[in-house]
Structures are given as C-alpha cells and as structure tokens.
User: Fold this.
Amino acid sequence: MRVGWQADERAHHKQRWSARTSLASAALAALLPLLYGGVGGVLLLLVGAGGIALTVAGLWWTLTRRGSARAAAAALAAVAPAAVIVMFDAANLLWVVLLSLALWVLAVWTGRYALRSTGLRPVRVREHRTPPPRRPFLVMNPHSGGAKVERFRLREKAERLGARVVLLDPEQPCDVTELARQAVADGADLLGVAGGDGTQALVAAVAAEHGLPFLVVSAGTRNHFAMDLGLDRDDPAACLDALSDGVELHVDLGFAGGRPFVNNVSFGVYGAVVQSPAYRDDKVGTALELLPELLTGQSGPRLTARAEGRTLACPQALLVSNNPYRRDDPAGLGRRERLDSGVLGVLGLRVDSAAEAAGLLLDPEASGLTVLTAREVVVDADHPTVDVGIDGEAFALPVPVHCRIAPRALRVRVPRLRPGVPQAQPRLDWRRLRKLAAAVGRTAVTGRPSRPN
Assistant:
C-alpha cells in the first residue's frame, strides 16, 4: 500500500541522512584543527598526544615506584594534562578541540542510528517459557551488598512466593555447595542466591550439574552477572518476580581448575593483590603497596598462557572471562554483549616500561595487549601454585590451571520484564556507512525486502 511505502521511504531517508551526517561529522572533527589552526593546530594536537603519553607514563611510574619517586610521578600525571589544556587555551584552540570532540560524539551517535535501522539486529539470548517452580530454594547472604537482604525484605518476599530461604551466618561458615546439594536431595526444583558473584557461581554449578533452573538476585556489591542478564541492580526484590512470572535463559558457565565462575578469573597482578587480608578494607592502599614488585617482576610467579594455538609469555595480568567483554564501545566497557557464545574471552597485558604503557593507550593494537577468544585456556607458572581471583574471591590453584567453558549449561530463570536489558549498540562499520550514505531510494535498507503491493 502507498501509506506503507511512504513510511518505508521516510525511514530510508532518515537512514541515508544519518549515515551522511555521521561521515561528515567525523571528517569535520578530524579536519577542524587543521582548517582553523593550520600547521600550528596540527602541532598543538601532537603536543596534546605527547601530554597524554606523559600522563600515562606518570601513572606507570606511580604504580611501580615508591617514596619521593612515586610522589613526583603522580605530580607529573596531574600536571601534564593541565599544561596541555593551558597551551590550547593560550593558542585560542581549546574551543576547537572541544568542538571536534562534540562532532565525534555526533558522528558515533548518528552512525549507530543508521546501522541500527538497517534491520541487522545483534543476536539476543533466546528466552524459554517454562512453568514456575514449585519448590524453589534460595540462599541469602544478609551482609552482602550493604545488607540489601534486609533493606529490600528479600526473605519475606521470597517466602511469600513459596521459596524456602536459608540465611548465611558469617559467625558459622558453611559449605554453600553442600547446602545446595542437600536442597536438591530434598526435592528443590530451583536454586537461587541473593549475594555476591562468588556465591552465585558455586550454587550455579550445582544447578547446572542437576539440570535445574538458577535464580540470580542482585543483592551483591557489584552484581556483574546480574547486570549482563539485564536484571535490575537497583531493586533486587524485582529479581524475585521470576518465581511467578519468569522465563529461562540458557547461558554459559566457566570453570577454572574445576572451580566455577560466572564472570571471570584473574591471574597475575589482580590475583595476587586480592590475596592480601587488607584488600577488603583498603583496596587502593593495598594495591599501591604491592604493585611495584608485582609489575616489575620482583615478586609473583612468571605466567604462561596457551589458548587457540597462541602462547602468551609472562603476562603481568591475565583475565579469562565467561564470554568476552566489549571493547569497542566506551559506554559498554565491562559488559558482555552475550552470555551464550560458547567461548571464553582472553585478555593478556604485558607492560615493561613507561614508554610501552603510553604506547598501549595511543595504539589499541599494541603488542603488549593480547585479546582473543578460546574454548580452553591453560595457564602455567614457574611456581607450584598460582594466586587467582575467581569472581572477586581469592584462591590459590595448582598449576597448570585449565580454564574451560560449558556452553549453555546453565538455565537462568529471570523476570519476563527486565528493565536492565540494554539495547546492544551495533559496531561502527565505516564501510557500511559509506554504502548507506551513497544509497539511493529504497536500496538504503539492507534488512528484509518489502512485499510487493
């Protein structure tokens, strides 16, 4: 019909002009310093890049030095960017830089709008309709996340929905895994946790082992797993709606040396820092105390990691995650686009000098950073055991540590309505944007073709 055709044509028109606006904004953002400031503007941009490099170098020295050297490095890291801003302002180019940044933001926003409207949507985790559980069992940590269990009256709501709830007592530690196994033996048909990600992983492994659905209640401090599931982290009580009105997501579960993890396992610097008893009370102070020796190789084991035929020699930090984290979108850093890709994310970092640290920031493809995916990662060391952080909890594991992923092994029951589910942003593809910008009429959209009238 003509009305539908006109609506499609308007959508295609917006798509074309969004792509054109994106390309024009990106070009103007790059050319503006040259057009306004000439050669001097370009030189100032180079000075700005040098200032960024000095800032990163100062941060590196701050982390690897002690005493007066650390204080001087921290001062350099603070003074360098301030000096660059003063120089741009003195040359009357500060507004040019700010306008260039604004144009770049516009280019990214309009480019993603154009790509979203092509009809090519990111793959979403499939939702499975299942009947509500009849005998759910939940473990709750009343001290997790600043006493969220009590503040949001999670126990009362869960019991009203028919769940059996066990509160953990820090004065009487218990084996959470055995607690979950006993609940299964008593007939539980769903296992859940209101607590941190480390506790979530232990109970999730039991649920996966027995093929039972698993319920996540975002009552921890950070709730990274809950975030990537799209759950409401501000209102953990909303997670309990899954008991009465829920769907299931089949997601992956990671294992490191036989221990389960829902987020990641960290080797190297972070794995060593979290071992300190003082870390929980003073994270920054503990890290500054331990990092100089860890980053310069004076303490800690020398690691070697093998994944997908590649070898990572002596990384200072190694992160193996249950599905890869996003790196292409600053707004999406720390998030995983999918939880069911069936692969581990691997991120290895090795920096031996301030120059390499600066190069790492200026060049995302620098040799000191390794990013890949793999179904299995084997981590070895020159010590019999290696310190690791598994979902933020400290462990020491015998080497070699085999990390693997169990594809879609975990049935996670979540509320049908989840306000935390983000709209996945498409990756910027400048080649496709050029094609969209040059397209004529109805050929702009690459989604489903329209039916003939």
Summary: The CA atoms of residues 112 and 426 lie 6 Å apart.
